[in-house]
Amino acid sequence: MKRGHRLRHKPRHILHSSLQRSSEDSAYRSVCPLCKVGLLMVGRNQETLALVRLDRCTYCAQHFFYDDETIGDEPVEALPPDYEKTVEAQIKALSPQLVKDLGN
User: Fold this and answer.
1) 15-65 pLDDT, tens per residue?
2) Which residue range forms the structural domain that includes residue 66?
3) 3-state DSSP assignment of residue 71
4) What's this model's pTM, rounded to 2 decimal places?
């Protein structure tokens, strides 16, 4: 399995609450359910510091949308209308050469 091999794959919906945590010390950081190597870190909106629904594995680069209303007892920010379609379009537009370079 190559690093970044799922970069251009369609985002998946998951429940953060169903994921295996990377350690007992973190309510946020989880093991990627697909590659089992990378981590899902749970990001924050840099302006509001609210948790965001979109995440990406640090190894395989698969995108995920969290369907939970809260993560670690904090609310998760709602997505703007059509945000999911926008993300899918951006992923699809990524250069095949970039994807190839990530795998090397």
Assistant:
1) 999 999 999 998 899 999 999 999 999 999 999 999 999 999 999 999 999
2) 1-82
3) strand
4) 0.83
